[in-house]
Amino acid sequence: MCGIVGYIGHKEAQQILIGGLKRLEYRGYDSAGVATMDKNAKTTLLRSKGKVTELEARAQTHKTKDTVGIGHTRWATHGEPSKRNAHPHHVGDIYLVHNGIIENYQDLKHMLAKHDYIFKSDTDSEVLAALIDYLNKDTSTLLEAVTGALKMVVGAYGIALFSVKDPNEIIIARKGSPLIVGIAEGEVFIASDASALVGHTDRVIYLHDSEIGVCSREGIQLYDLDAQVVDAEVEKLELDLQAIQKEGFDHFLLKEIYEQPASLRSTLSGRINVKTNSVKLGGVNMSDDELRDIRNIMIVGCGTAYYAGMMAGYFIEQFTDDITIRSEVASELRYRSFHVPDNTVALIVSQSGETADTLACLQELKRRGVKCLGIVNAVGSTIAREVDGGVYVHVGAEISVASTKAFTSQVAAITMFGLMVAQAKGASVKALNTYVKELYLLPGEIEAVLENTSTEIKKIAKEYARFEHALYVGRDTQFPIALEGALKLKEVGYIQAEGYAAGELKHGPIALIDDRFFEVYFLQDNWLYEKSQSNLIEMNARGAHAVVITNTDKRISAEKVVRIKTKLEILTPMVFNVVSQLLAYYIAVARGNDVDQPRNLAKSVTVE
Ligand code: AGP
Known about the structure:
Glutamine Phosphoribosylpyrophosphate, subunit 1, domain 1
């Protein structure tokens, strides 16, 4: 989604801002811009449609030495992607960048038009700039105008702005859209995502909702919406340059697929103990009595996070008999008249910790008094701060839009939570033994699969990249990974892909099978093998172009069979999923797609 950067200090702002915008590219965007100001309040505004490199090329011919500036990457909501709709917006004395959506912008626009404001863009953001400019005509400080404007708007915002009336100040504010401030000697860096701050400083302040910051070379002062001073907490940024570089891989997506053994180890580290077959999650903040009382686990997320919840739910059901699990798509749940039974704990799953729909569910569940725990990656993110406790998955920065290592670790974290509940309920060590042992083995098993299958998958991908349609099929614990696999192929391969439960094929989707489709079939050699195999046979009889991913040695008839050797039983789908990630990646590469920043997508979906 949209990205914000800002800088005030003694260095040339333009280069710092463009560098910051490049770091935010992974979030997805369609236009970019920067505005800078010198000490005499002379401004330079550059905007362009398309990639940040276009903006950078423009900056080559419009270089400035200005030391104050703001920048933005825009993911279009109101109005098409164009230079005209790109940020920063300039109205009167004000230059402003905005993430989020101003819901009542039409009413405000109408009011401002009566005061002779003429709008050059289709955006809600320009209206906010105009509103601040309008109010600033009668206020003694810009802060007063900003607080006044923010009290009038309905919606979500992360903003950074400056006025030509004061060349030594940038004002920022947030509500429902993240903003982080980096502090250094005589400098303040502003960003909507920590990756833009790496290398500049590791002293950061995460803005809370309804806080406003006045940034100058002396530092930052925070206020609330009534312009009352608020204390700021300076924290250490735990993100290094290495984490946001490709390090020899062609794409972040491939790097992150290969990082999974290490990232999963860091999720599990200090939390599972194979000697005692036990699990301890420090951040859950629940006593054994409270854990014992849990009867329902509600898992909420979007996209891959939702599928991770579903996958872990399948596992947890196997080792607990008095817990009902439900996995919910946050964008649906938030508007449903859903019921929450007593003794429910909600797990809020989000890599970014900023997904708007997931956050809205968290807020609604908290309003109803439901205990909410976060399964989050981004430290300090909004969801991480608003939950009652939780588990950081600690996979490091996930830059590629397509989520891979987060999925694997979300499944592990939720499963560990289930194990901890089962432990508290008195499940025998023996009953949990296999799960704890397999979680412990999983990183090594993923390592082996990456090493042994990558070349084969690359070859298959080249051959199957010609298809425009795909069916991903699996039964039982293979079903969530069929859904996740299809999602990966859609987003990076731009191939229409459906994920289906094997037993559902005959209820409709089998009609799709023809020469335009290929099928990915997850076939685990377990107690359901015979049943799953007969679905495969039925597909083959109708001319399927099936790629079977399996751990069996038995004879299988299919166009391609990828055989995985693994010590795992229960967690086998987790290694199948890694094969499926590789398949989507290599197909995307073979089709020449923009693997890390797929079209129309954003890394973190901070608007509905
Ligand atoms: C996954 O590949 C997607 N890009 C997307 O479905 C993602 O998982 C979803 O938007 C949820 O994001 P979150 O984990 O940051 O909340």
